[in-house]
Amino acid sequence: MDIQVISLFPEMFKALDSSIPGRAQKQGLIQLSYLNPRDFTPDKHKTVDDKPYGGGPGMVMKFQPLQAAIHAAKQRYQGPVCYLSAQGKPFDQAAAQTLSQRKSLILIAGRYEGVDQRLIDQEVDEEWSVGDFILSGGELAAMCLIDAIVRLLEGALGDSESALQDSFSQSLLEYPQYTRPAEIDNLAVPAILLEGDHAAISRWRLKQALGRTWQRRPDLLKKHILSAQEQVLLAEFIREHSE
Ligand code: SAM
């Protein structure tokens, strides 16, 4: 997969050279490259921003350098062009799944008060938000997208099963995790995890996943169609936790 990022701060993306995205780059599963709008300005001051029409605080990213950067990116791959924006569609695991199927993406990280609306209207195909809060720039949001997408590419994770079990992949939160030692600070691991009965462990984990989602994210549970077994397990969990 080829991802081109348009950003005034490409050095921030060094974080993606570590861990799973770093390994995915070395394996050739993903190619990341960067275009800086400053390199596409016609003036000697390399101006990328200007005051907003109508007044008000801050600066706005100019149309021309961004459009030139997008057109340069399209010479390599056609897109789609995604603008990271607090006003975009909420980015979630389903969106990560959809984007991970694409051959290429062009991501725009905004700065200042954002981008001239005409650039969005003319050049942007999709707008994605990483949450209802305001970041100083789109770089961290773009990194969230890239990291979430990379995890879904075949061969990126040591054990591809783990992406299937992650929270949200089945529209449920994941069950709680434990590791050695079996007891610490008088706190024991749930006995069932030590007994080696894989069917019982799967049942327990599904029950915990359902219970956690019910406790913490009832909105997710509303979207999940419960199987007969899941209905029984959730009812058990609720009974045990109301006692
Ligand atoms: N004035 C803008 C508004 O109210 O929507 C916020 C501008 S913000 C300071 C600068 C840039 O950060 C934006 O252009 C966008 O690229 C990025 N950004 C901020 N919050 C974001 C979020 N929640 N998701 C995605 N990108 C975000």
Describe this structure in words.
By secondary structure, this protein is an alpha/beta fold. The chain has two domains: 2-151, SPOUT methyltransferase, trefoil knot domain (Alpha/beta knot); 183-240, Trp Operon Repressor, Chain A, CATH 1.10.1270.20. 39% of the residues lie in helices and 16% in strands. A five-stranded parallel beta sheet has the order 2-1-6-5-7. Helix 2 runs parallel beside helix 4 (117-123) and helix 7 crosses helix 9. The longest helix has 19 residues, at 198-216. The chain starts with a strand and ends with a helix. 25% of the residues are buried. Residues 84-87, 109-111, 113-115, 129-131, 133-138, 141 line the site of S-adenosylmethionine (SAM).
The helix tally amounts to 9
Task: Count all strands and give the number.
Answer: 9
Write the CATH homologous superfamily of the largest domain. SPOUT methyltransferase, trefoil knot domain
CATH topology of the largest domain: Alpha/beta knot
CA radius of gyration = 23 Å
- Molecular shape: elongated
> How far is the first residue's CA from the last residue's CA?
51 Å
* CATH-derived architecture of the largest domain: 3-Layer(aba) Sandwich
SS content category:
alpha/beta
The biggest sheet, with number of strands, parallel, antiparallel or mixed sense and barrel status, is: 5 strands, parallel
CATH class of the largest domain, please?
A: Alpha Beta
Low-confidence stretches: none
Q: Could you estimate the helical fraction of the residues in percent?
A: 25-40%
Q: What order do the strands of the largest sheet run in, or round the barrel if closed?
A: 2-1-6-5-7
Range of strand content: 15-25%
Distinct bound molecules: S-adenosylmethionine
Number of domains: 2
Average residue-wise pLDDT: 96
Subcellular location: Cytoplasm
Protein name: tRNA (guanine-N(1)-)-methyltransferase
EC number: 2.1.1.228
Subunit structure: Homodimer.
